[in-house]
């Protein structure tokens, strides 16, 4: 059994898609990051970095319980264990390269673009421009890669496609375009529509819908999501 520590945000969405595509048995464990549950000692024992997603595999290597955190690490771990969605052996270098491009580039810059456009105080025009333009640059790199092919790596649907789906599903917020955010990236748009039409994608979007996650963006939420912005209380 896999315990899946989840909040309805882009990085957990990637793992939800894999679990649904693979048909693996899993239990959703909600972690309400707006309430600060990611900072509780019980969760920090699973992910010392205090971020979702994370998993605990009760049937890990050698039959031992295994924890895995960071969405890219989880995708790679599950795909290697399950034996699917890794593409052809000759595509392995490309798969790793694009998986980490998404995990260290497109994802983080998209996240920072969202933060500075929606959550940061006004007047930080340099930061808004910096992260928005870098997100757009990463989109263009991926758009060029998808020209003339159905999948990001090789001819197979892989964990790289699942990883990209997680963040590109939030393109409207990253690019501040609610109507047609991917119009400037036609190859991404066509690829995304194909992935998003998969039955597993609909099931992945439904994960966690039965839990009432906090939606109010109050001071508690800001302190939970951005603790480094607040100095520790004086003793």
From TrEMBL:
GO terms for molecular function: oxidoreductase activity. Residues 88-216 form the GST C-terminal domain. Pfam families: GST_C_2 (PF13410), GST_N_2 (PF13409). InterPro entries: Glutathione-S-Trfase_C-like, Glutathione-S-Trfase_C_sf, Glutathione_S-Trfase, Glutathione_S-Trfase_N, Thioredoxin-like_sf. Residues 1-86 form the GST N-terminal domain. Its EC number is 1.8.4.-. Keywords: Oxidoreductase. PANTHER family: DISULFIDE-BOND OXIDOREDUCTASE YFCG (PTHR44051:SF19), GLUTATHIONE S-TRANSFERASE-RELATED (PTHR44051). This is GST-like protein. It comes from Phyllobacterium trifolii.
